[in-house]
Amino acid sequence: HPLSVKLLVPSLMKFYTDVEHTGATSEFYDKFTIRYHISTIFKSLWQNIGHHGTFMEEFNSGKQFVRYINMLINDTTFLLDESLESLKRIHEVQEEMKNKEQWDLLPRDQQQARQSQLAQDERVSRSYLALATETVDM
């Protein structure tokens, strides 16, 4: 539809930047999920040649595009940084667990806490890397 070709890309780009401040207590993490879905939509729209012109107009228009790119870079940097920190912690726990004698010397509650942290780091790392990959692929 001609109206979607004209308005969808600029509206989504504005929404991508506006979601930085939602007012919710979980806004910092919510924005990544929202932006993930927007990037999926952008990739889909890019497959439709009818939207190329609208993308190019946004790229050339300046202000909104600069904000969008700035947030895209900031998100990617954060997600990669957090992923690397999680991977580092994962590696440390895996190395501890490899040394069976040392691991068995730890109190049971400490082992459980380390295993719980390991599971959480694995989830966070997977999630953040998926979000970062989607952002970079865009």
Automatic annotation (TrEMBL):
The keyword 4Fe-4S does not apply. GO terms for biological process: ERAD pathway; protein polyubiquitination; ubiquitin-dependent protein catabolic process. Signal peptide: none annotated. Coiled coil: none annotated. Residues 1-138 form the Ubiquitin conjugation factor E4 core domain. Pathway: Protein modification; protein ubiquitination. The keyword Repeat does not apply. Pfam families: Ufd2P_core. Keywords: Nucleus, Transferase, Ubl conjugation pathway. GO terms for cellular component: cytoplasm; nucleus; ubiquitin ligase complex. It is found in: Nucleus. This is Ubiquitin conjugation factor E4 core domain-containing protein. It comes from Micrurus corallinus (Brazilian coral snake).
